[in-house]
Design goal:
Layout lengths: L1 H29 L3 H6 L2 H44 L5
Helix pairs in contact: 1-3
Length: about 90
């Protein structure tokens, strides 16, 4: 079950977050002064748009997946303890 949730998270949460980050980054770039564009080449700006969003996308996916796995582990451990302590009630 945990694998299904993790795959679902990766498939659906990641594109949504990536789109949000790209829009925010683009909006922030548009609000910069002209000196920002003089100091950075077109290639650097495009690289920022691609690499920064990819890094954020990976971080979000890794963190969400890790949290889901940890919750599943805690639930399973609690269930095992319950069965071990009193098998009649669990």
């Amino acid at each position: 079950m945990c694998v299904c949730v993790c795959v679902h998270t990766y498939m659906y949460m990641t594109p949504t977050h990536a789109r949000t980050y790209r829009v925010r980054l683009y909006t922030a770039m548009l609000q910069q002064e002209i000196g920002f564009f003089d100091a950075n080449s077109k290639g650097q700006l495009m690289s920022m748009m691609g690499e920064d969003v990819s890094r954020m996308q990976q971080a979000v996916t890794d963190n969400i997946t890790s949290i889901i796995q940890q919750i599943a582990t805690i639930v399973q451990c609690a269930r095992c303890v319950c069965v071990y302590v009193s098998p009649d009630t669990c």
